[in-house]
Design a protein that fits this description.
Layout (H helix, E strand, L loop, with lengths): L2 E4 L5 E6 L5 E2 L6 E2 L2 E9 L10 E10 L9 E3 L13 H14 L6
Parallel strand pairs: 2-6
Antiparallel strand pairs: 1-2, 3-4, 5-6, 6-7
């Protein structure tokens, strides 16, 4: 966690970043730690104390170290925030568990 701020209208904004900046290129698998730039992504997370926090993930855009690879840059992925995800894995799991526990199927 980089920062956590209570918002004036209620709720909380949390900024997070991975501790390890090295990751493997999805195109060729070669490990890289060379940061090209930084991106910020807002994602949804589980509610805490009735409020849903605003989560901002700071991710490095890494340069692929393999010259023969077609990908020049790529963003770091994690188990909690897979490719193109807009919500954390734990929120999707909590939503699925809530649907199962309610005994209702989709569309009912």
């Amino acid at each position: 966690m980089i920062d956590a701020v209570d918002l004036p209208c209620g709720g909380r904004r949390v900024k997070v970043q991975a501790e390890v900046l090295e990751d493997g290129c999805p195109g060729c698998g070669v490990m890289s730690a060379r940061v090209h730039s930084w991106t910020r992504q807002r994602v949804k997370d589980v509610a805490v104390g009735g409020d849903r926090p605003v989560v901002v993930v700071r991710k490095p855009r890494l340069v692929c170290a393999e010259r023969a690879c077609g990908r020049r840059t790529f963003t770091q992925l994690s188990d909690q925030l897979p490719f193109r995800a807009r919500c954390l894995t734990r929120l999707r799991e909590a939503a699925a568990e809530a649907v199962i526990a309610s005994g209702r199927g989709p569309g009912r």
